[in-house]
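Running this now, will post back.
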Amino acid sequence: MIHFNTAGAGRISAETLHVMQVYLQEEHELGAYETELSYAATLDGEVYENIARLLGTTARNIALFDGATKAWVTALNALPWSKGARVVVTPYEYAGNLIALSELQRRYGVVVDVMPLLANGDLDLQWLAQHMSAQVMLVSVVHVPSCCGIVNDVEAVGNILRDYPCFYFVDACQSAGMLPLDVQAIGADVLTAAGRKFLCGPRGTGFAYLSEDFMAAAQPRFTDLSRASVDVRGVVSLGADDARRFEYAERNNAAVVGLNQAIKDRLSVAYNVERGTYRFLYQQLAQTAHISVIAPGTQQAGIIAFTHANYSATELVDYMRAQGVNGWPGYASHTPYYMLGQGHDRFVRLSINNKNSLEDVQVFMGLLAKL
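Update: finished.
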């Protein structure tokens, strides 16, 4: 099976599968609590250190979640929102994030402004600089959206925001594992990501980087017994001042050790190994009759979206899957401001990682030609 659906979920490596199987076998034989104790060095230390290495930060700034959306929404709700605060997003914002913002609009009257795009699809950074003010509490940018391969210039946004007392969220759900990330260079207060996509980790894993400024200003809406205690008078005390106070105690530890292995795999391989394969696939599709590639922006990576003049997205993906090639029929509603605004409903999304080859592309293009 050729897997061109890494943006949905990457295929885990044999090593990741093995460590998860071993962990589950030990839970079966020894008990879950006992196995957790024997893996304490990984679960309480190594996985945080490896994520920190991936992002260019320290382990105290890393929190684990069961997905990127949980991480993003937890950080959002921890901020001290006030009536009439402004939020700036881009047209590439993920619908799950917009749903969470709609609740803030209902509760606090938060105003959400959408940053316009330049004619080529890049973010209009001049507009952002001109519309920043003390009323802007949050700027949220999706590094690489789920709908196409544009790489938004998150460092340029961060440079603009350094002069303002707002919080800067970067949704790196698709870029983590695909592109090198340095939260210090980006200037993010919060960066969230999923383990299952370009990191090729297990489903049900995610994490967040939380800056010192964010942790000083934010308070988790709920802290469970793993990070807090209650005395005889009912007084609650927080036991940690790091990012882990935003976590929940209950988690799938087999998935966490799998995530740790997947991140070790990613750290061991240079970035941009797949760039040649990506460019080849992009060029082949752009030159093919009946194909319209959806490719805004000056920089692209990892994801290619397109429509076919004669076949629906679901028809084409079903055909390819039956021939041994995975893709995904994307939903425009998942990035509604951009994709619905462009008049799309469904589209074919192909996404690759460093395990894909030029031969994979040739197989796909051969099957496409048969249509």
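Residues 85 and 135 are 6 Å apart (CA to CA). More later if anyone needs it.
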